[in-house]
Fold these 4 entries.
Entry 1:
Amino acid sequence: MARTDRSRNIPHWYAGDDDADVLSLTSGEGARVTDDAGDEYLDFMAQLYCVNAGHSCAPIVDAMTQQAREIPYVSSSKTTPARDELAARLADRAPGSLNDVFFSISGSEANESAIQIAREYQDASTVLTRWRSYHGSTYAAGGLSGDPETRSVVERHAATTGVGKFLPPMVHNSPFDGDTPDEIGQQAADHLEFVIKNEGPDSVAAVLTEPVAGTSGAYPAPPGYFERVREICDEYDVLLIADEVISGFGRCGDWFGIGTEGVEPDMITFAKGVTSAYAPLAGVLADEEIAAEIRADGHPLGQTFAGHPVACAAGNAAMDAYADGLIENCRELAPYLEQRLRELEARYGAVADVHGRGLLWSVEFGDPETGEPFVDPRVERDADNPVEDVREVATDHGVLFGSGRPDTQVLCSPPLCIDRADIDEAVDALATGIEATF
Ligand code: PMP
């Protein structure tokens, strides 16, 4: 395959020289992308879980073009109709009283804004996040993350302050010993209460967590977990912040992942899918009372490109696309994707578990003989990772999948515009990868 010269361009999440052969994509249409050699791929990852409306969606491109012609940039301390409209529409789709939006640019910055707001509002500094979580790569957001590789960078520079960690409520490879998902959910919630009590509830400003885990493995919490977490947060006067950077905008079959839990958080952070990744945009949706305090007292912080008008125009058009059938398509196709992935679990010993929600799924691998989970090679620095081989074979068969943190899994997060035939094609390529590897 031909490659453009990328010798001066350092890719993000660069794994070193082994990672040199990255794809250079030149065009996309719907769920398909084409590289600089003309080879086509089914993008079963929506790039980084973000091109939710698919590539080259004409109404989004048109809205951006029109906005750029009218006025491409307006200061983030002023406003413009596209920005106001998007804020109103987000408030309309968000649960309950989350009616005000503080725009940002990236997911990392949205999370940093949310914790700045929470700390000011609560006059308390500790924020609790899950081990294994991912909340961004900038210093403060990297410190919020529970992923060992991300944290190792920020902690080396002593940049993590005011963050405590709690154990995730995952069922596969769970740190808890409950016999059923419900029991594990209960144990995980009790554990969070223990952590809050021992941190000292007055010092805890917020719990920040993904409603459905993203990069750490597409796992939803067991039934009842979030209801209990909401009760605990209320009891100890701790804010609940849902990081919806991946789980929002239809990805889990609803506007927001927390919507699938029936729980109302105090803030939601969003990014990625809000514009279907056509332009960088992110933000914090805040409860009216919190927002009222910001409005009354002021909030002397901001970013030049927050709520960029061209990105807001993309956001408004993307929200139309989600409402006009994409979220429904996600809901309709989710059981079929699950069924096809469970077939792989039944057929191959190396597939240890599959879990997910909507069109966000993880295929977890383990030793085909013993069933033992693989150790994350990025933490152990073990160059030989069979899961990487599975993905490579799938890529050679024309389907792009994602890697998780830990990298013991293949992640599925396709654009929401796919159909059943796309799912069949992806699952077949994955099966070919598994057969070639194990
Ligand atoms: N939160 C979550 C849950 C994420 O998955 C990500 C990125 N994958 C972020 C925050 C950070 O977003 P960004 O890369 O836009 O800074």
Entry 2:
Amino acid sequence: MSNPSLLILAGDGIGPEVMAEVRRIIDWYGEKRDMPFDVSEGLVGGCSYDAHGTPLTDETMARAQEVDAVLLGAVGGPQYDDLDFSVKPERGLLRLRKEMDLYANLRPAQCFDALADFSSLKRDVVAGLDIMIVRELTSGIYFGEPRGIIQEGNERVGINTQRYTESEIERVARSAFELARRRGNKVCSMEKANVMESGVLWREVVQRIGDTEYPDVELSHMYADAGAMQLCRWPKQFDVIVTDNLFGDLLSDAAAMLTGSLGMLPSASLGAPMDNGRPKALYEPVHGSAPDIAGQGKANPIACVLSFAMALRYSFDKGAEADRLEQAVEKVLADGLRTADLLGEEGATPVSTSGMGDAILAALEASL
Ligand code: NAD
Ligand code: IPM
Ligand code: MN
């Protein structure tokens, strides 16, 4: 049997810096755990635009469809701000999500004990936090038509459309309920059914799927604005949160700060199962290309490393090896190693991006 295949799209800004550390970890698994991967690389985002005039070529798109999993760094940067909308770096990532039909975006927010004092919230509020945001990723206002900027009389109008079909809501709801069954058995669905028809439908469909297929899972509903408030007030009330594309984008960045830094949050974007029974999948940190710190060795590689741990778990059925990697991360944090985004406590040891990679590799080695 051939080795599992990985396509690495490191992207822009700190993307290549954090991905370099993940490459070393992938190699370690090949050598030390007898888990070789066939790794290929490609361009996405601004770097692809610079090379090919498009943020994602058809060849790279086709390759992403073939591999067992895609690992992505980050895309974007201020030098691309003035590009036409159709070739902006972010369009490359959105095309991958849409054409691979990666409708369920899993964004876990876990607070490692060693970082509980680092969160902007009190230790009590975040210590032991372990929630999962399931963000719908291929529809909603990100993709709805009509969209565009049109001339209306003597002024321009910017238009985007929030649109959800019942089947789009059903499938992401099922993903959330399935995850909840393997966790704390609770789902909270967030929308704005008080002002949006798409929210009314969302609530109705999630409730129906819950009642008919998952009566054993506790289901609640919240307006997304109240949900944002509750996420800051007492986040441990949640287990799985399921929400739409835009609300999920916002709520997951907010959840990142519960864990201490945006540099800590991984994600898995999953689609329908392929012939081999595994979901189509793309793994990426929640953070962006961080232009303010790019090229300085300051980026925290942990979000990207933990995204690879999610790949081990969800694409390669290596849950124990994913645990090993997550425990290695927990160990280096407990030892006080901190990249610049996590500095501030007394007694912490500052490390660079590659210094953090070295420490995680050493912890992996020590786990054998
Ligand atoms: P960002 O996530 O890049 O950065 C926000 C802040 O968090 C910055 O201060 C940054 O330094 C810090 N930060 C982020 N990741 C970090 C890490 N790993 N280690 C340490 N600090 C980290 O968001 P932004 O500044 O709003 O966006 C910059 C660019 O990235 C934009 O072009 C945006 O569209 C793009 N973006 C891409 C993705 C993605 O590729 N998935 C996600 C979000 C934003
Ligand atoms: C994210 C990002 C993306 C999004 C951008 C870069 C397209 O913010 O992955 O959270 O808005 O989905
Ligand atoms: Mn985002």
Entry 3:
Amino acid sequence: MSNHIFINQKIKNFRRKIKVSSDKSISIRSVLLASQAVGISKISNLLESEDVLNALKTIKKLGINYYKKKNIYFIEGFGLNGFKIKKKTTINAGNSGTLARLILGLLVKSKNKVKLIGDKSLSKRDFSRVIKPLKHFGVNIKSNRNSLPIEITGSDFLRPITYDEKIGSAQVKSCIILTALNTPGTTIINSKFSRDHTELMLKFLKYPIRVKKKKLDIIFIKGLSQFRAFEYNVPGDISSAAFFIVLTLLSNKSEIIIENVNINKSRIGIIKILNKMGAGIKLKRKKIYNGEEIADIYVKSKTKLKSINCPSKLNSSAIDEFLIIFLVAAKAKGISKFEKLSEMNKKESKRLDLGIKFLRLIGIKVKRFKNDINIHGNPSLNLTKNYEIKNFLKDHRIFFLSCIAALTLGGNWKINDKKSANTSFPKFLKILKTIGAKIN
Ligand code: S3P
């Protein structure tokens, strides 16, 4: 099967109600926490993407059995530190930074050495951000100059730490929280705001974790408490919904309702940013489910969007969505300003560099000042040329961005690395086709 697609026409107007794939961050956390619970957990609507399948393969390799019946995954945990780890175990996190960083926190007591590897993209990413706190706990960890492969051997002498998490990284924070589960005493994290799914899931499991909301989040985790197996239903992923939100906004006379999407405050930066640009997106039928807030997202096409001076305090809650937000800025009237985007270059690919390259490819003027950018919008942007997107680290979000640009701006596109969609959103192209996109 070929690994590229062609798009040669804009999408025609549509009015649809859709569901997007389940949330990737929550899916991975539910698998990892179920592997540490006492008994058989039942997880429905688990995202079946490569990152999550790698999480399932990983717990299996560490001695945790699971099976699927109908729409439910059953995961058989033996409690905290209940892995059965064989000698010379290697686990492969594939493309997933979340899996790689979080699993380290659950290996901190392993009697046998475990080697952690990943794909080409993950092997280029920085792990010093987790290695540093793990060493404070007293974990034995060796790496290839702070990147993969990493070897970790557990210790029986872990000590609780107080850690200032200054990056605003949920992966770092969650790695520390999971390490704290296996550590006696109370670990404290002074954490810059970032997505809080791990904290919410542990609270939902009645684990002794407490969060004081001040300028920073101060998180207290008491170690060595067991928690029971649980039932969990994973909601839709706003990071996947983002592409359909922008597709609708930038199309003609179209409307979409995206049902049952997670609207955790730490994730809805895109809604806040686009609404400041005049998008008029509405969240309806809000409810709390399994400790997370869920809603239906209503979007209509908008011909007049205005530029934004984006407050950097929204960066962490929109960190995975900036690529597609840039596309809206390209069509908005005026100059949009975004700042302090260095974290974008630490993702599956250097997304800040690539986002700028992409905008220039479609004829948009972009000025860059280190990690700040100005995008000169062009509301009458309409493409007619040929474009080819080669996505050398196979970043799923670059693939999705390219498809949405092609379907809303016109031009003849060849977009490579179709398979990258499997990382987070395997049904992406199928859903696009059901709402009328012509994709070959
Ligand atoms: C994630 C956290 C974010 C995000 C990533 C998923 C998570 O990364 O970009 O896609 O599930 O914890 P950082 O923690 O590096 O900011």
Entry 4:
Amino acid sequence: MKKAIGLLGGTFDPVHIGHLRPAIQILEQLELAEVRLLPNYIPPHRASPDSAPAHRLAMVQLATAQTPGLTVDDRELKRDRPSYTVETLMELRRELPDTPLCFLMGMDSLCSLNRWHRWQELLEHAHLVVSHRPGWQPQFNPTISALYLAHGTRDSEQLQRRLSGCIYLFDNPELDISSTQIRNHIRVGNNPQYLLPEPVADYIREQGLYQSPVL
Ligand code: ATP
């Protein structure tokens, strides 16, 4: 069995410290080989993102360039149709048959997982590693409770021993940061410094992103 890798899907509009700190902590504490950030093309379960895919990709590349162990996987952006996580995980499983896959998500995502396309199949292809997020308690609806009862584990070694199938709640410090909050700061002329990496903030300024209201 190879060393497990992490996969963090998101719109990253823009990528911020609330994505990156948990990703680094999970990389180190779970001894993953790498964490790949996977920007979504069109997230199927939410409204269309503000910025063009090329901007979101550029920001994720800038954010990870100086961080050993964090990489970017742009496969979903290359598809010209909605990207479903289950399909990406199936593709990665075919490419990496001996590598445990840890799909990283925030607690908000786990709480609404049963709205994802073919959500019942996700754990066949990957583990779920969930980071805590302010405002989201692990108080699950009955469907997610049953899923957690069947797949939840407190033993992180299972994530390296098995290819898929575990849900692991990662004990990270909560960071009250979201892309929405950052877009709103920029729209009203506030300084988003320290919520996101400096090179990403510079890129947003240079490109004039998030300055006009969404119509
Ligand atoms: P938006 O505000 O536009 O909805 P977001 O900040 O939630 O965006 P996404 O790109 O949608 O960012 O998130 C990608 C993944 O990262 C999701 O699984 C989400 O739960 C997780 N995540 C985002 N922000 C945090 C945070 N502050 N703490 C923990 N997990 C987070």
